[in-house]
Amino acid sequence: MEGLNRPLPHPITPETQPYWDGLKKHKLMLPNCEACGPFFYPRILCPKCHSPNLTWIEASGRGRLFSFEIAYQAFNPEFKIEPPYILAMIELDEGPRIMSNLIHIKPDPMVVKCDMPVEVVFEKLTEDITIPLFQPAKRIGGRLV
Ligand SMILES: [Zn+2]
């Protein structure tokens, strides 16, 4: 699609629809097993106990940088984000890990640190697709807000 800086996701499985619907409303929704708690990515069964008894919860949008990589070139020509940029594995406060980009920070290994607090930023790509990106959590007076 013209003007986009990354490939557009094409949600086709009904079990992911609450996730995509939530993002449009700036809510990060996680599938939640009644026995085991939240998980990610959305599936029709709990990945731990295989229960089909799933609900959805709204995540806080806060977490920590679990791991990252600084990409100095894009191997997929559909990615038009100017490198370097940060590929990030975020561990949400609710537990599940989510792959994303870390933005609003210099892509420098001396600046980006594992375990740093991060928060979600919603990036609208089209009327139907909004994606979750993450940025360093805001601080006021040394406290996270
Ligand atoms: Zn379970």
Strand runs, count? 10
Estimate the global geometry from the Cα principal axes: globular
Number of domains: 1
Oligomer: single chain
Gyration radius, rounded: 16 Å
Kindly state the mean pLDDT as a whole number?
93
Largest sheet: 5 strands, antiparallel
Name every ligand kind in the structure.
zinc ion
* Element-level helix/strand string: HEEEEEEEEEE
Q: Work out the helicity level.
A: under 10%
- Which parts are unreliable, with pLDDT below 50 for 5 consecutive residues or more? none
Strand content: 35-45%
Cα end-to-end separation: 36 Å
Report on the architecture of this protein.
With 145 residues, the protein is mostly beta strands. The chain has one domain. It has one helix at residues 17-24; strands spanning 29-33, 37-38, 54-58, 62-71, 85-92, 97-102, 117-124, 130-136, 139-140, 143-144. The chain has a five-stranded antiparallel β-sheet with strand order 6-5-4-7-8. It is globular and about 45 Å long. The termini are far apart. The mean pLDDT is 93. Bound molecules: zinc ion (ZN). Zinc ion binds at residues 33, 35-36, 46, 48-49, 51.
Topology:
Layout (H helix, E strand, L loop, with lengths): L16 H8 L4 E5 L3 E2 L15 E5 L3 E10 L13 E8 L4 E6 L14 E8 L5 E7 L2 E2 L2 E2 L1
Antiparallel strand pairs: 1-2, 1-3, 4-5, 4-7, 5-6, 7-8, 9-10
The structure holds zinc ion (ZN).
Q: What's a quick, concise take on this entry?
A:
Helices cover 6% and strands 38% of the residues. The protein has 145 residues and is mainly beta.
List the keywords:
single chain, 145 residues, mainly beta, five-stranded antiparallel β-sheet, three-stranded antiparallel β-sheet, 1 helix, globular, binds zinc ion
